[in-house]
Please model this.
Amino acid sequence: MRRRLIVKKFGGTSVQDKERIFRVAERCAADYRDGADVVVVLSAMGKQTDVLIDMAHDINPHPPKRELDMLLVTGEQISVALMGMAFSALGIPAVSLNAFQVAMHTTSVYGNARVKRIDTERIQHELENRKIVVVTGFQGMNKYDDFTTLGRGGSDTTAVALAAALRAEKCEIFTDVDGVYTADPRIVKKARKLKEITYGEMLDLATLGAGVLHNRSVELAKKYNIPLIVRSSLNDSEGTTIKEDTRVEGMLVSGVAADKNTTRISVIGLEDRPGTAFKLFDLVAKAHVNVDMILQSIGRDGTKDITFTIPEDTEDECVAILKENLKRLRAHDLDVNHDVAKVSIVGAGMMSAPGVAAKMFECLYNADININMISTSEIRVTVLIDEKDTERAMNAIHDAFGLDE
Ligand code: ASP
Ligand code: MG
Model:
């Protein structure tokens, strides 16, 4: 009979020094001794990825993306090798593997690759030999036989992808917080830990700035129905379970999130005729820039404006390509503002309850916070506001919806 298999992922702070590395090893050893097969996915130690990025930019302010990935993957290799040694010191059979040794196939976009397929033979073989398998998070290989990386925070996605490919019983994400909160506890003092949350809610929260999980990891977990558990690597508290259905806690809204990594771009005086939006967003897409909120004004005198938001860290690429093409787009002007933030409320409960958006707007009005843009989905309301108002807005919303109760 097949043993139960658990994938456990530990973030950078969980492996930042010797003491913590051993704590992780002990924690995995407990499941192993309990009879489970254990696959461990690790991030780079501490802030190592940031250090490597700084090193790269010191040599070349615009490092070739291939070379940058080549550099970044070293961070995770250090972690897994040291963890392999820690297991050995504890007398537990283990083997560390990088993306090539696993055969973690991804798309070819450096810096933002997606997992396509994982060959599981090597891992299965090691597990059958009763070894703990320690895998580098964040990295993959592409069809050119180059290393790729999955985007910042991508180790979560590595873990879920492995859990799906290996049909794990669950995927545990160990981090430096106790679980998923109703809001970032550093900003909202009254934030409360959630016991359970749906994939849909978590996906929105992760995408909208709740830093706790890489959003693609949630997408994958949902697709393959892998229970995801977010918990602390520093204590034994229960954490938050992310799954399809939750025993609804009777809440309209499960959380509020903010994302300051946002830039608003307005393209002014575009021709008001078919194909304009296509031409504009085709350009943006070719620059590999993700567009989020989009707003188009009513046409007037044959022209219209289109306003949209993008991640602030892609602003330079996006603005450059738009400036180059302003004439071809027949636009008059660009207006760019990165002192803005997105604040969102998320809740599966709002699907069947009217008035949730109005309540959020009312509370922002009471706090004298101006709304620049609005977008909604079935389970989410997002507003774009001035960045300086972010903390105030989050606290006001958290109070208004009674999320601390
Ligand atoms: N080490 C990578 C990063 O810092 C990946 C991860 O931690 O998930 O983004
Ligand atoms: Mg992370």
